[in-house]
């Protein structure tokens, strides 16, 4: 059965994007510093069709594990717009991707197995469609902040992983701003650290309030 998981890069002060984000400034001012550890991993570079170089240590294994378990992705329209302007022709997902949006748009097929479907069907129906096409693999709620928090608060996520970069952004999009803490109960599963980043992994417990 498909698990539903979130994995995001986050700054030490809780931001997943800096200010002034947009297609011409993906991740916002300073936001790429949150992912610096990831950009140099072999598994990341392979997925982005930029060759076979890169690090192959424990941080790479984190990325490999994540990519290998995904059968379908779900994302919000702001994240998609940044990617549409910046991802390579062979989009880095290699699965169906459901983009939550009020915009009506035909599916967008890319090289390498990625097709973007633009949907306005609610969180649960979108997740059901993603599970249907995931072929028994897991569904990743990719981002951005708005969509991830909606899925978390709706109680539809099984696992939350955060890669905590040792940087401060000071402004931008804070993942947990405004969170209703009654809807989330976390059980720590693992934590690993390297010189560049700390990965924390939680299971989401079903709390009595949802
Ligand atoms: N640090 C990380 O790991 C990470 C990962 C992913 C993304 N990001 C960053 O996150 C930022 C984007 O996050 P965000 O919170 O601004 O936006 P987002 O979650 O990507 O997208 C929000 C938009 O999606 C649409 N939407 C959301 N929920 C919907 C629903 N239930 N039904 C229909 N449409 C829905 C709406 O767009 P419309 O009204 O226009 O349709 C909404 O404004 C970007 O800067 C991106 O780079 C960071």
Strand-helix topology:
Blueprint: E1 4-11, E2 15-17, H1 36-39, H2 42-47, H3 58-69, E3 70-76, H4 77-86, E4 96-100, E5 108-109, E6 115-119, H5 123-133, E7 138-143, H6 145-153, E8 159-165, E9 173-174, E10 185-193, E11 198-205
Parallel strand pairs: 1-7, 1-8, 3-4, 3-7, 4-6
Antiparallel strand pairs: 2-9, 5-6, 8-11, 10-11
The chain binds NADP nicotinamide-adenine-dinucleotide phosphate.
Describe the model:
- This protein has one domain: 3-Layer(aba) Sandwich (Dihydrofolate Reductase, subunit A), CATH 3.40.430.10.
- With 210 residues, it is of the alpha/beta class.
- The radius of gyration is 16 Å and the shape is globular.
- Helices cover 25% and strands 30% of the residues.
- It has 6 helices and 11 strands.
- A hairpin with a 4-residue loop joins strand 10 (185-193) and strand 11.
- The structure holds NADP nicotinamide-adenine-dinucleotide phosphate (NAP).
- NADP nicotinamide-adenine-dinucleotide phosphate (NAP) binds next to strand 1, strand 2, strand 3, helix 4 and strand 7.
Main beta-sheet annotation: 9 strands, mixed
Average pLDDT works out at 95
Order of helices and strands: EEHHHEHEEEHEHEEEE
Q: What portion of residues belong to β-strands?
A: 25-35%
* Helix segment tally: 6
């Amino acid at each position: 059965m498909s698990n539903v998981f979130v994995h995001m890069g986050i700054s030490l002060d809780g931001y997943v994007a800096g200010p002034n984000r947009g297609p011409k400034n993906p991740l916002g001012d300073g936001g790429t510093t949150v992912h610096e550890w990831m950009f140099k991993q072999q598994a990341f570079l392979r997925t982005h069709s930029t060759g076979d170089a890169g690090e192959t240590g424990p941080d790479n294994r984190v990325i490999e594990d994540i990519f290998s378990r995904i059968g379908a992705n779900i994302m919000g329209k702001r994240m998609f717009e940044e990617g549409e302007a910046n991802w390579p022709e062979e989009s880095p997902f290699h699965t169906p991707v459901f983009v939550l949006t009020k915009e009506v748009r035909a599916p967008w097929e890319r090289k390498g197995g990625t097709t973007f479907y633009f949907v306005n069907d609610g969180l649960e129906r979108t997740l059901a469609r993603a599970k249907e096409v995931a072929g028994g693999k897991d569904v990743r709620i990719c981002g951005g902040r708005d969509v991830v928090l909606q899925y978390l608060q709706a109680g539809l996520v099984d696992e939350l992983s955060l890669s905590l970069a040792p940087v401060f952004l000071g402004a931008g999009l804070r993942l947990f701003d405004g969170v209703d803490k009654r809807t989330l109960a976390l059980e720590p599963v693992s934590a690993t650290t390297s010189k560049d980043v700390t990965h924390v992994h939680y299971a989401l417990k079903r709390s009595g309030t949802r």
